[in-house]
Amino acid sequence: MKVKPLRREFFQYVILNICGMIGLSCYILADTFFISNGLGANGLTALNLAIPIYSFIHGSGLMFGMGGATKYSIYRGQKEFKNADKSFSNTICIMSILSAIFVLTGIFFSEKLTILLGADKDVFHMTKIYLQVILLFTPAFMANDTLICFVRNDGNPKLSMIAMLTGSLSNIILDYIFIFPLNMGIFGAVLATGFAPVISLIILSRHWFTKQNQFQLVRITPSFRLTGTIISLGIPSFITEMASGIVMIVFNAIILHLQGNIGVAAYGVVANLSLVIVSIYTGIAQGTQPILSRVYGERDSQKQILKYAIKTMLVISCGIYLLFLFSASPIVSVFNSKQNLQLQRIAVTGLKLYFTAIPFAGFNIIISSYFASIEKALPAQIISLSRGFLIIIPMAFFLSFLLEMTGVWLSFPITECFVTLTGIALYIKSERGKKNV
Predict the structure, then answer these.
(1) Residues 6+ apart with CB under 8 A from 103
(2) What would the mean pLDDT of 369-394 be, rounded to a whole number?
(3) What pLDDT does residue 435 have?
(4) Which of 30, 67, 72, 125 could pair with 230 in a Cys bridge, judged by C-beta atoms 3.0 to 4.6 Å apart?
């Protein structure tokens, strides 16, 4: 393994993927900005109540994309090209089935879902519209997430980045046009978000038109074993994204009780900024995945790549936290056009406490992706489940009972710290297991 070419390849994939993932996460951040300015605190509350469903959709797309593309890269590293095509075809098949279920949910159950998410009469209509439209665009979101992963693993990270950034830029432009000049309200915001993956898919189609693709759809008998492997390897990515949605649902319920709709709106600012920060770490993890899976398939060492990823994450984390520590108030003001003092106070405090978690969250996302990339699904799932469900939810209820809003903000960093210790222990155990083989 040549260190210099490997380092160059690592930074090429990671930088391109971070840029792309930031762009992808700006789908919702753009909605947050334009809705807060165009529709005020109620619009922001409606958006925050509906966003968990987007996290489920995006997480499902990444589950199939990351799981299928990981298996695809391993097969190609092992020179098993027919199996690589089967991996792609199985992924598209199961992705299509699940996206159809989401669409049917949007058509028949959006009202019940809106009630379940806790929308009151002030924000019910806006929340329902956002939910219904985002669910109807599920096939585009999931196909985009899946194909971005495959194109990146097929040696074209630059096109993946361009597709993600173009989709995000179109969302920002359409958000402005639909909400302000056309006065379409929250329907305009979600319509702009739904068009973004469609535009991204058009950009990705260049991979086929220029005949750069090495994967293709083949006739298959659906393989339950291969499907299970794809889902198993993709579940950590799914849980990473879905955790944001689960945490939002739980935090929304707690904060509605503690601070009402204004508290939820303030949390919306923090949570949607968190989606962008998490996307940076997801960018590092997804950028390293194609290299890790290929090197693993070739029976080479993966330690050096993991070191690059963790060092990169720590440098970025320091910069991000210093920015939030010293610029929390002006950052919140961008999303508080009505100058609501209660919203400003809650969100500023939240930014400073909540984002002490970022180096731990970054490590957990990277180490979970590392295990999945080398076909160690169980430790990856333990890390993802711990941070997504097993620790964060009871921690949020316990600390909010003791410390109210301060406890809500602290539950995230304390959870991520515990999970980091678990991840380190699992990594040490994995390395000892290799030595004993």
Answers:
(1) 135, 136, 138, 139
(2) 85
(3) 60
(4) 67
Q: 213: helix, coil or strand? A: coil
Q: Which residue type occupies 80?
A: E
Please report, as a single letter, which amino acid is at residue 348.
V
Query: Per residue in 322-335, is it b (16+ CB within 10 Å) or e — as a string?
Result: eebeeebeebbeeb
Under DSSP, is residue 291 helix (H, G, I), strand (E, B) or coil?
helix
Please check whether residue 53 is in contact with residue 243, taking contact to mean a CB–CB distance below 8 angstroms: no
Instruction: Output DSSP code: residue 389.
Output: I
Q: How confident is the model at residue 1 (pLDDT cuts 50, 70, 90)?
A: very low
Instruction: Enumerate residues 6+ apart whose C-beta is below 8 A from 137.
Output: 193, 194, 197, 198
Phi, psi of 238 (to 5 degrees): -60, -45
Would you say 276 and 316 are in contact if contact means Cβ atoms under 8 Å apart?
no
* 260 occurs within a structural domain: yes
pLDDT of 158 higher than 70: yes
**Do the beta carbons of residue 315 and residue 321 sit within 8 Å?**
no
Q: Are 296 and 74 in contact (CB under 8 A)?
A: yes
Tokens for 65, please give them: 């994309």
Kindly state the average pLDDT of the residues 133-148.
93
- Cα separation of 398 and 84, whole Å? 47
Judge whether 433 lies within some domain.
no
Amino acid at the residue 74 = I
Enter the tokens of residue 295. 């090197």
- For the entire predicted model, the pTM comes to 0.73
> What is the rounded CA–CA span in Å between residue 91 and residue 62?
11
Number of domains in the chain: 1
Please answer whether residues 91 and 111 qualify as being in contact, where contact means their C-beta atoms are separated by less than 8 angstroms: no
Distance in angstroms (rounded) separating the CA atoms of residues 208 and 223: 25
The mean pLDDT value of the chain amounts to 85
Q: Is 431 helix (H, G, I), strand (E, B) or coil?
A: helix
In 3D space, the residue among 68, 54, 64 whose CA is nearest the CA of residue 102 turns out to be 54
CB 17 within 8 A of CB 160: yes
Do 82 and 220 contact (CB within 8 A), yes or no?
no
Give domain status of residue 196, yes or no.
yes
Per the structure, the complete domain to which residue 87 belongs is given by: 3-428
Report if residue 129 sits inside a domain. Answer: yes
Report pLDDT digits (tens) over 72-123.
888 887 778 888 888 888 888 989 999 999 999 989 988 888 888 878 888 8
